[in-house]
């Protein structure tokens, strides 16, 4: 299994899953960058995986169908009204095969109410639920839902690779350093990511191990983060959901 990172739009990432000559695309925000790779490498595109309905994740779907004809389009069954091109609606925890690879879908509400994560072997395609050192805004879901969704992702195993939907990692790490200032892993990761971005290389994928060490939204039980929020008078309760909500609100206003 190979995964190709395909930069799209301003800061989006689309992904090509490749097994031999078979290929599937995750969150095609644009068609032409995907088509260029498929044509250059002589691949056979057979499937599209949609994590959620936002246009910057499915904007190229119709063009891919026009170019390559019938494709299996996977998405959460409750997203069929917002992604009407879905042909393979999936239930939470349902297993399926893509490019002869075993895959599972997880319902991860928070960013949207119908967001899903695709687990293909030990690769997690997390869309806008989890980012490098961050997480998605709560456009439709609640803080409690997002905490549960992030818990599900965290339980997948630290060896998993994490393929996220946007290049926000540098800014997220600056925020992480502010709310978790005694964590040396954040500075080390920030230096690595800065080198990657100077060379115009994507910070995706990360690993779940790296996220658990440096992503404050996966560290809501950490005493240093809780103490920092209390010192800034941003926290009334040290419960997990309250800590997450305080972090998310602070990140919403961070630039």
Plain-language structure description:
The chain has 9 helices and 14 strands. It is an alpha/beta fold and 255 residues long. The protein has 2 domains: 2-164, Ribonuclease Z/Hydroxyacylglutathione hydrolase-like (Metallo-beta-lactamase, Chain A, 4-Layer Sandwich); 169-252, no CATH class. α5 packs antiparallel against α6 (184-198). It is globular and about 55 Å long. 47% of the residues are buried. The mean pLDDT is 96.
Name the CATH homologous superfamily of the largest domain.
Ribonuclease Z/Hydroxyacylglutathione hydrolase-like
Q: Which sequence of SSEs, written as H and E, runs from N to C?
A: EEEHEHHEEEEEEEEHEHHEHHH
Q: Work out the radius of gyration.
A: 18 Å
Q: What count of structural domains?
A: 2
What level of helicity do the residues show?
A: 25-40%
Largest sheet: 6 strands, mixed
Question: Which secondary structure elements does this structure contain, and how are they paired or packed?
Answer:
Elements: E1 2-8, E2 12-19, E3 22-26, H1 32-41, E4 44-49, H2 55-58, H3 61-68, E5 72-76, E6 88-90, E7 95-98, E8 101-107, E9 116-120, E10 123-127, E11 130-131, E12 134-135, H4 143-154, E13 161-164, H5 169-179, H6 184-198, E14 206-207, H7 208-214, H8 223-231, H9 240-252
Task: Fill in the keyword field for this structure.
255 residues, alpha/beta, Metallo-beta-lactamase, Chain A, 2 domains, 6-stranded mixed sheet, 9 helices, 35% helix, globular
